[in-house]
Amino acid sequence: MPRINMKRLLSIIIFGLSLLSIQAFAETNAKITSGILKVAAYDNFPPYSYQAENGKAEGIDVDIARALAEELGLKANIRLVFADESLGDDLRVYVWKGHHVTGPPADVMLHVPYDENLIKQEDKVNFIAPYAEEQVVVAADPDQLGNNPQITAFFSNKIGVERVTMADGYLLGAFRGQMRNSVVHFYSIGEAVQAMFNKEVTAVMGTRTEIEAALGDAKENYQIGLMAMPGIAKASWDLGMAVKATNEDLTKSIKVVMDKLILDGTIKKIFNKHGTSYHIPAAIINYPQE
Amino acid sequence: MKYLSGACESGFLKTITIAGALIALPMSSSAAGVTMDDINNDAKTTNDVVTHGIGNQGQRYSPLAKINEKTISKLAPAYTFSFGGEKMRGQEAQPLVHNGVIYTTASYNRVFAINAETGMQIWAYEHRLPEGILPCCDVINRGGALYDNLFLMTTLDSLIVALDTATGKVVWKQSLGDFKAGHSATQAPLIVDGMAITGVSGGEFGIVGMVRAFDAKTGKLIWERPTIEGHIGTLNGKPNGMTGKLNATWPGDLWKVGGGAPWNGGTYDKETNTIMFGVGNPAPWNSHMRPGDNLYGVSTIALDPATGKIKWHFQYTPNEAWDYDGTNFTIAFNKGGQKLAAHADRNGFFYVLDRTNGKLVNAFPFVEGHSWATSIDLKTGRPIEAGKRPGNPADSADGKKGSVITVSPSFLGGTNFFGMTYSPQTGLFYVPSNEMGMDLWNEPVTYKKGAAYMGAGFSIKPLFDDYIGAMRAYDPMTGKKVWEVKNKAPLWAGSMSTGGNLVFYGTPEGYFKAVNAKTGKEVWQYNTGSGIVGSPITWEQGGEQFIAVPSGWGAAVPLWGGEVAKQIEGINQGASLFVFKLY
Asked: Are A117 and B445 in contact (CB under 8 A)?
């Protein structure tokens, strides 16, 4: 990945935005008369969104939703929802149609991938406001693997993954399955990282934000990075939001507000507050060319 | 395929009792409860239906013959009972009847007790579903069980609940696994030796299948048997041996998250004292990641009721790759002095097994479309595959959609959860079957919970212009198709055969039909006004033969996209129990 001159990039974006700023007030009027922004975010998904012990929703996505609602002059009503078998199901139930058990859809759903193929496939929602890049990384235990291990280390060393993730599929299939017997499956990244603490696995492969949060204060003792992974189908993607396609007012106003929150550093601060690094979305890096 | 415990706070449950209606009970409300003898003899006794499958062996046959080809023109509704409210979603249940009371489940885990003579409601129970249940499929339930003075039901939030048959109040409830992790249940419990035995749904969320036996009167867990090799069962809270042999047919640790949900329930054969459960497909979906047979995914497992240990197994689709769950019922029957069992699989083949040891006796296709395999090798029991295995997404390094293969049956199967029926009178099996294929391709990048993974795409299509569904009669020993009745829309409802030489079944078009069991000639039909996806029963009361069938469109069928959807457009919702007798 080429190094980006962040200062230059930001100046280009800010210039672009300033042209729009005259309209900004009008465009942040989401025309929601109830005063409440109904937000769907995934449940049981630390550090992004989960129910804290006090029963309240917490996490990166929850804080982003609250910041977004505040800028829109609304109060965020955050609903923690369960991930169904596919994103298409989630969008149908939580964004554009609703469901006879779970009720009407939310105004906006967070943590929706911003991917050009998805945008082509799903015409019932607007994919908007990419706000962070997610990356598939390996966190390795130097006590067990030494410094700078390569992917081939996992021909013979145990590596933990969450089931049915890109990391899982990659490690089971790559190199004609030669790493398959090294893969140890868990139901969450948190469990996998705990197994690394216990030296049951030498490394964990998964999404950076989840791994960093699970490592917590122990982060310094492990090597976290983008490893060369020949043949991986997707090593990073952007996280954005989805709004029902017919809701043009909300679509416009969220775009404007989220641009502001990314540029003024609010989003980065939220990630850092939860002990995770922030990675600017590829879609924003490409913004001037679009 | 898909269908949702543990966090069973008492607040989830509520009961609505319609007081006063109790007076309408034709018999003493303190009448004797259902005994094990009632259950074991259910297939022979005609005054009640106390088991799912009209007998634990699941033949769905009644010897009653008052309704027959000669009299059936006088068959008309005695009454209909509305499940009411706005909750008109797929009514997939098979009702039960005992002591003049019909007990049936309805969508959203509701239960109704109805006076079988008048159609008046005695009580209703409404299970309060937590908001977090995964709404992937529909809010269906397939029926309950009766034992002693209890009516037992499994729930979408993965509980087994026992209700007092006199009041509808909860007597006990137990968890079948955390619904937030993807567990769910829709099957009717099986009552064997005073135990309520049930599996669980949710294999597509990676949960490992489990069959559990509870003391039916108290809810105390007696044994658990995991369906996937490597996991340890329990008996009375103590370890009771591993399922299969560790890593014999699974690589690495994939068995730990191996799926295999026994989501459709089981049958029981008293003669050989064997419980037979069908097991769902192994996880993850991509068969290339789990080389090996992946036992006991897509198999029938035969269990010893006393211990829950596996006596034998038969696997239908080794290293399963097409979502051909092995969950359809395995039905005991005797022929030529042999103790046999029959199973019409999602994979399009009809299997006859020796139920004393699980050895294959016969196998033949019961659908035209079975392009994934040409035949079953009768010596080894293994399919002769036809090179239609979906490709490996790992081979598509550029992240592009893989090549499309067209294969049949579709993942919805040659037949599905709804029971076929066996008539000892004709010696034939009657299979509600469907001719559908699917396009299947790799999707190296799909998303779940906001994260990329390697998945698959599919679309279902009919194989023929003029029909999808077909009711078919087969001789299990020769594999000969004796007759068929085609149906435009897919058949998605259970069937029943009777001593009156009739076979009854419902259609999505709303018809409840009777055909001659020997010839397939249609002799009677009645339109219930909504699609039928439930199973009929028949019983005798006051010297008259009654037949009941739920009507109410919904469940998996309306969720299908593509060309199949055109065959089911315009079918109205409904939610009623229709009860018929001769006039």
From this structure: yes
Cis ω for the linkage preceding B296 (within 30 of 0): yes
Measured at the CA of A64, the angle between CA A58 and CA A67, to 5 degrees, comes to 110
Sorted by where each starts, the structural domains of chain B and their CATH numbers stand as 10-26+49-582 (2.140.10.10)
What 3-state DSSP class applies to B8?
coil
Angle at B332 between CA B326 and CA B334, to 5 degrees: 140
Quickly tell me which residue has 């922030």 as its tokens: A278
Burial of A132 (0-12, 13-18, 19+ CB in 10 A): buried
> Quick one: pLDDT band at residue B23, thresholds 50, 70, 90?
very low
**Averaged pLDDT, B528-549:** 97
Backbone angles phi, psi at A191, to 5 degrees: -65, -35
B12 in Cβ contact with B128 (< 8 Å): yes
pTM: 0.90
The catalytic site residues of B sit at: 323
Mutate to test the interface with A, among B86, B448, B458, B553 (most CBs of A within 10 A): B448
* Distances, alpha carbon B416 to alpha carbons B324, B433, B566, in Å: 10, 8, 20
Query: Which residue ranges form the domains of chain A, and what is each CATH number?
Result: 6-133+237-289 (3.40.190.10), 135-225 (3.40.190.10)
Determine the residue of chain A that is closest to B291 in CA distance. A177
Any alpha helices (H) in B233-295, and if so which ranges?
none
- A69-122 pLDDT, tens per residue? 999 999 999 999 988 878 998 999 999 998 877 789 999 999 999 999 899 989
Q: What is the ipTM of this complex?
A: 0.87
Token pair 């069908």: residue: B278
Contacts of A104 in chain B (CB under 8 A): none
Tell me the CB-side half-sphere exposure of residue B292, using CA atoms within 13 A. 23
The predicted pLDDT at position B205 comes to: 76
Structure tokens at B525: 């039909």
pLDDT digits (tens, 9 = 90+) for B269-306: 999 999 999 999 999 888 999 999 999 999 999 999 99
Q: Which residue of B has its CA nearest to A230?
A: B397
